[in-house]
Structures are given as C-alpha cells and as structure tokens.
Amino acid sequence: MSKQQRNRRKATRPATAATVTAPAVEPVATRAPAPSSRRNFLTALAGAAVVGGVAYGGMAWWQGRAPAASQVAAAGKASQRVRPTVVQGDGVNGPKGMVWVPGGEFAMGSDSKLAQSNEKPAHPVRVHGFWMDRSHVTNAQFREFVKATGYVTTAEQKPDWETIRVQSPPGTPRPPDNMLVPAAMVFVGTDRPVNLNDWSQWWQLVPGASWKAPQGPGSSIEGKDDHPVVQVSYEDAVAFAKWANKRLPTEAEWEFAARGGLEQATYAWGDDYQPDGQPMANIWDKTAKGRFPVVPKVSAKAGGAIGTQPVGTFPPNGYGLVDMTGNAWQWVADWFRGDYFQQQAKAQGNKPIDNPAGPQDSWDPDDTSAPPAAPRRVTRGGSFLCNEDYCLSYRPSARRGNDPFNPMSHIGFRLVSDAPKPAG
C-alpha cells in the first residue's frame, strides 16, 4: 500500500457513526430530488463499472436548483461598500503572487432569498489577516509540483475501496478489483434540453480523465498553462499546499476574501449581476451559451466553448483577487455540515466567532444516495457551469460539501499563507 493510500484511510471519516448527531435541518425547497439510478449510472460507464465512491460525494450539490430570475433581480441592494487597499506580495514584502487580506469582522452566510438553508443564518465572524493566492492554482504551477515531487493524483490512482465504502449505502458489496480503475467525473453536457432532476445525463465517469486530460483520453491542457488546474481532489490540494509551504483557507477566510470588502453583497463584485452589461465571472451565461446543460456550438466571439478560462480574465474584487467565484470550484479546509451556520449562530448569538476552523465532522442530509455522515469537505465559489436556472453558486455565501477523494472537471483550489503581514 502506498503512502498516499495510507493517508486516504486516515482521512476517510471525520468521526465514527456513534459520534455524529443528526441535526434538525430544514428541507431545501429549491432542491431537485437526487437521481434514482445513480448506482446503475456509475456501474455502467465506459466499461469501467466503478461502483459509487469516485463520484458519490460530489454530486449532491448539483441538485440545488436556483431561484427564478425574478428572485435574482429582487435579491436586494444590501451591501455596504468599503474601499480596501490592494496589497500584492512581490517576494520581498509578502509572498509573490499573493495578495494581503487584512482580516476583520463580517457577516458570514446569507439570509437572502437566493440562499440555500446551509448558508443561513448570516452571523458575525472575525478572521485574522492572511495572504491569499491572487488566482486559482494553475496548470503550470501544478505541473511544476508534479515534476518536482513525482506526485500521482487521486484521479490517476486505482480507487481505494475504503474511500468508496464510506460514501456508499450500508451493505454495498466491494466491486472486483478489475472494475476499480483510475477515473474522474467529466461534464459532457447534452445535445438537447433535458429534465434537470437527473445529473447523470450531463456527467460521466471517464476512465483516464485527470488534471493532464481533464475531459479524458484525447483531451489536453496544452496551451492552457494559465487555466485553473482541475480534476484535483482535496487530498491533491493538501499535498500541493504542503509542497508550497502554504495551506488551504478556512471556509471563513475564503468567504471574507471573496466578499472583497463588501458587506452582504449578492456577488463578489456587488449587487448587480452584470454592471453596465459586462460579465464579471466565467459562469454559464445563457445569453452566450444557451440553455443549461445543452452544449452549444458557439464561436469564440460568442462566448467560446464550455470550460475554464485563463485566470484573471475578469476584473479582480476589492482585495485584488480574481475568479473568487466562477471558473472552478475551490476546495477549502473545513469539513462540511449542512447545519454548521445554524450551530454557530445558536452557540454564539450576536457575539462574533473568532477565526472559526469549521466543524469536527460532516453532515449532508441533502445527498440521499450516500450516508448523511459520509466525509465531506467544503467547496466554494461555483464554476463555469453555474447559472441562474440551476446552480446559482457564484455567490460568496454559496457552499457545498464534496467527497474529499472526488476529482471533477470543474473543481480546483487556491491557497493562503501565514507569512508576516505587509510592512507599512
């Protein structure tokens, strides 16, 4: 057994079943039901017949259907605008490629009409200052890491049964070894409008998909050095962070940074979806790309193909951070509980919570295909697939739980550093 596989076994469960208490989580009215044929879908793909775990923990968040466009328009002008000073590290005064996030107190979460129950309630939190990568970790940076260390990502390894078992319903039999092959989840879209209750119509488990070939064999990242690296698991992100002498941000740090000095704004850039008609993030804009999840044949001028774009394509937020929402989801350090914000607000009341590091275990009752206490890590920021008809997670407060060993073609990460604050 490799060192990476041993680490997997250590990380598969945040707590035993006996230590997890079922919370009282209100049902999410806007969620579509989970697919009833998930197991059949996973066991029939591409002849690989991988049962469950590679994809189990990563799909429930995709069931969150967005509110209607009228609700988006009525979300309100709740932000209080602050003009922070942008401080970029230059390798002498702060780490190069990172920006200083000064920390402070803010309202974490949201009580907006657009918010899912796991984002509620908004509650006072205080974070300390930190440095954050200006952008997602890119393909070029991840290639440098792999070249220096010989690291093999989760998607490139034979799946470990233990990481599958804890994401599967009780009693799920262990599949034969020859059915467990390296694979990852790939967005493939559809050729016509479909019922949005069944994500299996636009996702496929593709053997051979990895960070080097995000859509599977025959695909490539050639010419995409400045795109976010995707098809990386939580484990992969942690390994890169250790090599880079950095760490994943906490969920609180991530949201504070994403807001860019705006208090309870709908988006990372403010309350207007497209100020002055200008797109502000790489998301599924149906004006250019049509109805989700239909993959259109569009020209580059009309919006280009569906996928990641170079980091920094869109304007930075108030702290100088680019792509805090859209482009690719971002792993953060915390375990995911759907009721965590409710727990925090109940315990602390109106007193600010100082530098929260997240819960001690996971709880995701919305993923009905897996045990509610199956391990989940938080992902934030949404991706190029988010849109107002289905996902709407390109908001700073939006949060989802994901299987830590589930690489997907729209999940990446960025890191933070505890280097000394800037001089002056």
Could you tell me the radius of gyration in angstroms?
A: 20 Å
Number of helices: 10
Q: Which CATH class is shown? A: Alpha Beta
Number of domains: 1
Distance between the first and last residues' Cα: 50 Å
Low-confidence runs of at least 5 consecutive residues? 5-76, 298-304
| Beta-strand content | 5-15%
Strand runs, count: 12
Q: What spatial form do the alpha-carbon principal axes imply? A: globular
CATH superfamily: paralog of FGE (formylglycine-generating enzyme)
Structural class: alpha+beta
CATH A-level architecture: Alpha-Beta Complex
The SSE order reads: HHHHEEEEHHEEHHHEHEEEEE
Question: Largest beta sheet, briefly?
Answer: 4 strands, mixed
Percent range for helical residues? 10-25%
Mean pLDDT: 82
Classify the fold: give the CATH topology: paralog of FGE (formylglycine-generating enzyme)
Q: Kindly report the spatial arrangement of strands forming the biggest sheet.
A: 10-9-7-11
Notes on the structure:
- It is a single chain.
- This protein is α+β, with helices and mostly antiparallel strands and 424 residues long.
- The protein has a single domain, classed as Alpha-Beta Complex (paralog of FGE (formylglycine-generating enzyme)).
- It has ten helices and twelve strands.
- The protein has a four-stranded mixed beta sheet. Strands 1-4-12 form a three-stranded antiparallel beta sheet. The protein has a three-stranded mixed beta sheet with strand order 2-3-8.
- The longest helix has 11 residues.
- It is globular and about 60 Å long.
- It comes from Variovorax robiniae.
- Keywords: Membrane, Transmembrane, Transmembrane helix.
- This is Formylglycine-generating enzyme family protein.
- Pfam families: FGE-sulfatase (PF03781).
